[in-house]
Amino acid sequence: GSLYGHSAPINPLESSKKLFGPNILLGEMMTPEQFENEVARHFPALKDDVAENRGLLHVVMGGFYRYTQEHISAESWSEVDRVFRFLEGAYAASLPRTEVENAVRASFLEYFDFQNHEERIRGFMGPQFTALYEDQMRYMADLARKGAASGADR
Fold first, then answer.
1. Are 82 and 67 within 8 A, CB to CB?
2. What is the C-alpha to C-alpha distance for residues 127 and 13, in angstroms, rounded to an integer?
3. Cβ distance 72 to 115 under 8 Å?
4. For the chain, first and last CA: distance in Å?
5. Closest by alpha carbon to 107, among 62, 50, 64?
6. For residue range 84-129, what is the model confidence (pLDDT) as tens digits?
7. What is the DSSP code (8-state) at residue 106?
8. Which pTM does this prediction carry?
């Protein structure tokens, strides 16, 4: 395998089926409620956080972000890899619904802190998640440019 991340490209739909069971085969899209249930099931340390914030997807995603940041700080790379595999699968499983994507963008990716491990962490991001991250960074750069331009107009 490679030094960073995945040893081979993974098919997001296949990884979704492995992570979340056969319901994806029926073409069902993961709802925010199902996403919250899967976070609690796959990451028991977040079970209480999910239970307390049921129905508040952005708050649950914020807790998942903090969990990820703690594991980056501790250099627990296998857990960081597990987080990104989970998110890649959940994102693929939720399409074409947008609630999970919006929560990932606003409460996970928008101000993502690589903590000086960008190359290693990018190795954990699957192809769809990488594309989502890069799209979000372009969006943020556009907003910053528009903000700077409107400030110059005054």
1. no
2. 12
3. yes
4. 55
5. 62
6. 999 998 998 888 889 999 999 999 999 999 999 999 999 999 998 9
7. I
8. 0.80
